[in-house]
Amino acid sequence: MATMGATPTSDTSLGSILEQVAKEKGIDRKILVETIEAAILKAAQSVFGPTRELEARFNEESGQVDLFQYMTVVEAVAEPEREISIADVEKHKLEATLGEELGFQVFWRPEDAERAREQDKEFGDILKLKAGRTTFGRIAAQTAKQVLLQRVRDAERDLIFNEYKDRKGELIRGIVRRFEKGNNIIVDIGKTEGILPFREQTPRETYRPGDRIVAYVKDIDREARGPQVILSRSDPRLVEKLFEAEVPEIYEGIVRIVSVAREPGARSKIAVTSRDADVDPVGACVGMKGSRVQAVVQELRGEKIDIVPFDRDPARYVIAAIQPAEVHKVIVDEADGRMELVVPDEKLSLAIGRKGQNVRLAAQLTNWKLDIISESKFKQMEEEAIHALQQIDGVSENIAKSMYRLGFRALEEVSEASTEELAAIPGLGGAEVADRIKAQADTTMERLRQERIRSASMRTEPLSDRERLMFIRGVGDRTVVLLEEAGYRSVEDILREDEDRLAIRTGLGIKKARAIKQGARDFVESEQKVLEAGRADAKRAAVAASAKQA
Q: Using an 8 Å Cβ cutoff, are 447 and 402 in contact?
């Protein structure tokens, strides 16, 4: 391959810059050279045309990037920008034969202006580069600068990412530097800056530039435009890491934090357990005269912390989590992941907490749905449930009480129970009676549903979404609660939903979900029309009565 015109120059500014950048930023010089070459080549193709065969090559002697165009020697030229005829080769006395590639250096820097004029004079009709030289010189210099800066920035971000990626999930200390729009806080954490987004800040905490701060490293975002290290003061794991720093037994693995529930700035609950029977996990976290927990509270600027002993028995665990309230009775519904906690009437507000905070944190900590009920309310609910069960033909008061003690709270639970479950109720009378009781429960539910529809048809005030849900065949109080918790608050919500998703989200099972959806469809298509007609008649009658009195 022959190359025409390559010579060194005394200007070594680019080479010096590459050396300096490679040394200061810790970037491989070879990578910087390749980046510059690729940038110059891309700029050349955009200016001189993408069909030319061009090459950008860093010249170690001159410290600059040389650009070359290659053309293949042919008999007859078909592609003028890539081929040169053998006749032109001979005419210009170039040393090349048929099929060989001939290279021409493209002179584009200002210091090569004279050589560029000579080249245009001699080979201008072949290379046709004159029109683009001036433009390319300006673009190439600008491109090289931009690409080099971008590569340095990328390299710096890579270095930061590699240094901090292993610190994700740890505590980090820094100094507040400044505030950005959106109330984000920029924190100096050593070799780089971290960002504490507004959403990760704790309510009622305020900072000023220069303040020291301890935060949890939530994430390292390699693609972020600004700081890559995302910090948090509101994450529950901040509490966990602060205790780990204060309690040697946690750091050593003797005491383990099982769960953390937190409402940032207000209150946290942590559940702890010990692998050593001689080590009290709660005492280890509290410390001598409360020194350890107070250190954490101080770092969290007064946030209250409850330390709860973990227990494998869910009921005992929940009772501990709901402290300081005392619990007299626990009713566990494992299928629904729910517990009812019965507390003394005078302790009800303490168990619930301010704005429901105590029970909400206990539910988060234990991963159980919790209902707090006063003793008087529980007794009332018990009486109502037993009375409802007695409405089933063949169920006496004693049998209803036995059903209640075994966990049956509503007609629909009897209707959905298996024959074996019902047959196990003391005094019921075996499988045949159990089947009859199931059928009677269905009949009673349908009778009560029809009574509700008739009662509603005589009213003039609007019906609530909950009332309309209760008009669906097979839906009782328990099912309505499950539907509402899953986000189905109206008959229309059920009709819009797929049966499988309805079954999964409510936990009712596919058979029950299909029955509910069919019941909703039947109600809308037939019974709702009868209901609306009855309500219209009732409204007309009320208007007529009012007019008559007037």
A: no
CA 42, 45, 51: angle at the middle one, nearest 5? 135
- Residue 202: DSSP 8-state: P
Amino acid letter, residue 295: A
Structure-block tokens of residue 245: 């720093």
From residue 458, alpha-carbon distances to 198, 378, 399, 547 in Å are 54, 33, 36, 19
Query: Can you say how many angstroms the Cα of residue 139 is from the centroid of all Cα atoms in its chain?
Result: 43
**pTM, two decimal places:** 0.63
Instruction: Calculate the alpha carbon distances from 367 to 264, 305, 348 in Å.
Output: 19, 18, 21
pLDDT tens, N- to C-terminus, the chain (550 residues): 555 554 444 344 677 777 777 777 677 788 888 888 888 888 888 888 888 899 988 888 888 888 899 999 999 988 888 889 999 888 888 888 898 988 898 888 878 888 888 888 888 888 888 877 777 877 877 777 787 777 777 777 777 777 788 888 899 999 999 998 878 999 998 878 889 999 999 988 889 999 999 999 998 887 777 677 899 999 999 999 999 999 999 999 999 999 999 999 999 999 999 999 999 999 999 999 999 999 999 999 999 999 999 999 999 999 999 988 889 889 888 877 889 899 999 989 999 998 899 999 999 999 999 999 999 988 888 888 888 888 888 888 888 888 888 888 788 888 888 888 888 888 787 788 888 888 888 888 888 888 888 887 777 777 888 888 888 888 888 888 889 888 999 988 999 988 899 988 888 888 888 989 998 888 888 877 777 777 777 777 777 777 777 5
- What residue type is 462 in one-letter code? P
